[in-house]
Give the backbone structure.
Amino acid sequence: MIHPKTEVRFISKEKGHGVVATAFIPKGTITWIGDPLDQVFTPVQVETMHPVFRDIIDTYAFRDNKGDFVLCWDHSRFVNHSFNSNCLSTAYNFELAVRDIYPGEELTNDYGYLNLTEPFVCLPEPGTNRKKVMPDDLVHFYQDWDVQLIEAFKTFGKVSQPLAKFIEPQYKDKVDLVAVGRAEMDSILNCYYDEGKKKMAA
């Protein structure tokens, strides 16, 4: 479920549509959280789909740390990529704003932590030498992302959290402790799906 103060807008011919903030969303706010309406498909289920539906999965779904494909039911599936994303996934099945997001600004993800099945060629972006998102980017960049998340959690309890009521019970106590500095945050690396281990096990 995407933050309620967002909407889909046309961004550009190159990007298509994206998700834009309709009000100020401060750093530390949950911007997306997994919920029971999201559809989860195993790789076997995706392989048996009609090509039209496989294309939809390839375009709009992400993979969780089990390798399953998650297709969000709402407009969160339109969140675009940025190598300097203002939202980051956590180990708790939600994303945080890692800096203030202003009205009219796009909410963005770095697709590098979404376990892509193949490299994704990106539009040029200032401030980075990265040109492609790779399926194993999480392994290479998790430490940088963890630093941003740790900083964002410092304001977690000080901002409005309209999506906090949907935090899954198995994460709730840990998230509360992390937010007040009484527990160490679990790394975003927990979101990684290791395709190589799967192939070795097979």
User: Anything to note?
Assistant: The domain at 6-201 is CATH 2.170.270.10 (Beta-clip-like).
